[in-house]
Amino acid sequence: MTSFHNLVHGEWIAGTSELPNINPSDTSDVIGLYAQADASQTEAAIAAARTAFPAWSRSTPQQRFDLLDAVGSEILARKDEIGRLLSREEGKTLPEGIGETVRAAMIFKFFAGEALRCGGEVVPSVRPGVGVEVFRQPLGVVGLIAPWNFPIAIPAWKIAPALAFGNCVVFKPAELVPGCGWTLADILHRCGVPKGVFNLVMGSGQVVGSGLVNSPQVDAISFTGSVATGRRIIAACAGRGAKVQAEMGGKNPLVVLDDADLGIAVNAAVQSAYFSTGQRCTASSRIIVTEKIHDRFVTAVIDKLSGLKIDHALKAGTDIGPVVDQHQLAGNLKYIGIARAEGGTVAFGGEPLQREKQGFYQMPALITETTPAMRINREEVFGPIASVVCAKDYDEALFIANDTEFGLASGICTTSLKHATHFKQHAEAGMVMVNLPTAGVDYHVPFGGRKGSSYGSREQGTYAREFYTTVKTAYTAAG
């Protein structure tokens, strides 16, 4: 069994223990043993980043471009290999795993270009004989805490901008999916990232995560994960004055109006709610359907779900792979039981499945006869489960869509320009999709939400500069 170590100050270092990385499609398949850091190793990684910061912050844009571009090129060249690893450790189908890997490569290449575009302003002062410059500088040491559901894309969209703008990084991947994080670290290391500029510290949230969040030597934290953990991190960072960015989930609505193209609406709903096993923070877990199309829509979704193949993530023809682990599967089944108890009807699926290999398989579930007040419509489940709410018209559908503590993504299926335009303006979400799945975003534009979904500035695209830099204003007297 291969052991994979942490990367601290340019050296591969064993942890105090190891954790097996288990394939959710086949629990007998152990991908490797991954180092678990203790508090002292976390502190060493932070110290290495702090030591490396002065030199890296003064590196040229060309140096940073060259590094990130090389990383992106290697990921692209190895997309099939890395995509297979991703599918093996997380449970996405192989096409999804390869697609996410390509996305990570393009993120690195995009931010390679951003390293060359970090300009500033020269503006006239209101006082004679004074010049004013406004420019951006790196923050310092940034702690990056990534989730398990996108094991290479989310680390990429945190690591790439952090390095592009001259910061040093301590990166903690999710315990369930360390393989892709380790592979990214290995690629950065072999592409020549200077010692201490990038550090990989694998381990638990209680040890490594807390060490990063509470260290006075860490200037900023970027976190993606659960609401409860995100709120604790926000409070801890606020308490010591550290910059913080948190993406924490959603209960995303997809509105289907009477005038919608049925085929487009069904495809958007199924893609949004069930693909990647529904384990996406942008998944549409609430489908709000107006009265005249409701029954036809439900029948068509059930027909579509009946034809999907749920199996091993690496098998050809698999549409949906397994849930990530037993804990997640148990939570999914619990919420289906709660929905039944509160009056919902399980119109399709929901049961655990047995396949050739022992894994965490579940039939996608569609729950009808639900009301907005039910827990299935209030709380994030994070599995292949969608509920349907019937609305009398567009106005009621919009109200229900916005009636949530979350605000990440929101979608509508309609042929009405009037309703589409109104929805884009009035949906209380950071991202809005019209006649498209809510899950699926571009890497060169901002990602993030409102209300309980997000805290701090946006991720991705040119907007990432807001978080990973600080603004300085300089005044110079003429002569």
What does this 3D model show about the protein?
There is one protein chain. By secondary structure, this protein is an alpha/beta fold. The protein folds into two domains: 3-248 and 453-477, 3-Layer(aba) Sandwich (Aldehyde Dehydrogenase, Chain A, domain 1), CATH 3.40.605.10; 252-434, 3-Layer(aba) Sandwich (Aldehyde Dehydrogenase, Chain A, domain 2), CATH 3.40.309.10. Helix content is 39%, strand content 25%. The chain has 14 helices and 25 strands. It has helices at residues 39-57, 61-77, 79-90, 94-115, 153-164, 178-190, 205-214, 227-240, 262-274, 291-306, 326-341, 394-402, 417-426, 464-468, and strands at residues 3-4, 6-8, 11-13, 17-23, 26-36, 121-124, 130-138, 141-145, 168-172, 198-200, 220-224, 243-247, 252-256, 284-290, 345-348, 352-353, 361-362, 365-370, 385-391, 406-407, 409-413, 431-434, 450-451, 454-455, 469-477. It has a seven-stranded mixed sheet, sandwiched between helices. The chain has a six-stranded mixed sheet with strand order 10-9-8-11-12-24, with helices on both faces. The longest helix is centred in the N-terminal third of the chain and has 22 residues, at 94-115. The protein is globular, with a radius of gyration of 23 Å. The N and C termini lie far apart (69 Å).
